[in-house]
Design a protein that fits this description.
3 helices, 5-stranded mixed beta sheet, 136 residues, Nucleotidyltransferase, domain 5, 15% strand
């Protein structure tokens, strides 16, 4: 007992069934409605208004270098490792906001650089940047 729809059974149905599409869209809509409040977790703060100021002027940074033979330099002037800390203390006494840049040859043993960093730390320098080459 076959039911006939009035069409020949060999005809291709050219209508698209959009019911699964609507179901998927409704599920996505519910998911977005539920997750949208969770995405907005910023704290609302009214910041005070101030006058525009120029950025602070920074003094010239002192550069401490360690070459391939583990010799230490302060701005191209060779210094013994034992004399590094006292000289940096003098520089910090003259400028408490001293910015120091450290650069070391890539072939230098780690212990030599670690000793220099320890001397810098003991001397009271609070702003230290380590210089490297870009790329590599």
């Amino acid at each position: 007992m076959a039911f006939s729809t009035g069409r020949d059974s060999s005809d291709v149905v050219s209508e698209i069934n959009i019911t699964p599409l609507v179901d998927v869209m409704l599920v996505l809509l519910v998911v977005f409605i539920l997750t949208a409040p969770l995405l907005n977790n910023a704290v609302k703060i009214n910041l005070p208004k101030t006058a525009t100021t120029a950025p602070p002027t920074t003094n010239k940074a002192v550069t401490v270098s360690v070459d391939g033979d583990s010799r230490v330099f302060i701005d191209k002037r060779e210094v013994a490792l034992e004399g590094l800390e006292p000289e940096l203390r003098q520089l910090v006494a003259a400028d408490p906001e001293l910015a120091l840049s450290l650069q070391a040859d890539q072939g230098v043993p780690y212990r030599a650089v670690a000793k220099v960093i320890a001397n810098i730390q003991r001397s009271g320098v609070s702003k230290l940047s380590v210089l490297t080459e870009p790329g590599g």
